[in-house]
């Protein structure tokens, strides 16, 4: 019954590795997002997809690549992980999109630790 | 920067008291939203207020928006221990995204 789910919840890995985080929403929403929350709790948008189309791509290293196989899923793949990538990554979804930004529903987060 | 600035950064009050936190911004907005984040959890949407609205209520929550002062406040009345969390304002500036504020960490002392 979870509206927005993410896997894994915790991810501990070595520098240089490649890892993926998966997100799924069962709300029927058109738009999905990836956010990064740093150790100071600052939450920053990374990417957004609307109906599988990329609509927001903030200044994020190209080691990060989102993939949306369908509008219910948005995965995040990270290549060549660095220490600075350690953070909590949140997936979110919302109905509609565009300038009528609606409330967003967040997943539980994935805590990534790069050693 | 278009980021919302929240104040205070941290707030501790006794259970039963009211808690007020503020969010200020610098340019015109489409809407402003408030979210709560419990420790180790995702964010939960509380209230959305549009630029042409001045006040909204939801249960013990009251949000005001003053576009002339470019600020919003979130009031939680009759606080409970379960209200302990971080509270974020999130602003839509008329584009496709929300820009989150720096957050207020609220602690309710039983």
Uncertain runs of chain B with pLDDT below 50, 5 residues or more?
none
The H-and-E topology of chain A, N to C, reads as EEEEEEEEEEE
Helix proportion range of chain B = under 10%
Structural class of chain B: mainly beta
Rg of chain A, please? 13 Å
Detail the poorly predicted runs of chain A. Answer: none
The radius of gyration over CA of chain B amounts to 13 Å
- SS-based structural class of chain A? mainly beta
Key descriptive features of the protein:
heterodimer; A: 115 residues; mainly beta; seven-stranded mixed sheet; 11 strands; B: 110 residues; six-stranded mixed sheet; five-stranded antiparallel sheet; 55% strand
What does this structure look like?
The complex is a heterodimer of chains A (115) and B (110). Chain A is mainly β. Helix content of chain A is 0%, strand content 55%. Chain A is built from no helices and 11 strands. In chain A, the strands form 2 sheets. In chain A, strands 2, 4, 5, 6, 9, 10 and 11 form a 7-stranded mixed sheet that branches. In chain A, strand 4 and strand 5 (43-50) form a beta hairpin. Chain A is globular. The mean pLDDT of chain A is 91. Chain B is mainly beta. Helix content of chain B is 0%, strand content 55%. Chain B has strands at 5-7, 10-14, 19-24, 31-37, 43-50, 55-58, 61-66, 71-76, 85-92, 99-100, 104-109. In chain B, the strands form 2 sheets. In chain B, strands 2, 4, 5, 9, 10 and 11 form a 6-stranded mixed sheet that branches. Chain B has a 5-stranded antiparallel sheet with strand order 1-3-8-7-6, with no helix packed on it. Chain B is globular. The mean pLDDT of chain B is 93. Chain A binds chain B through residues 4, 33, 41-45, 48, 50, 55-56, 90, 92, 97-109, and chain B through 30-31, 33, 35, 37, 40-45, 48, 86, 88, 90, 92, 94-100, 102-103, 105.
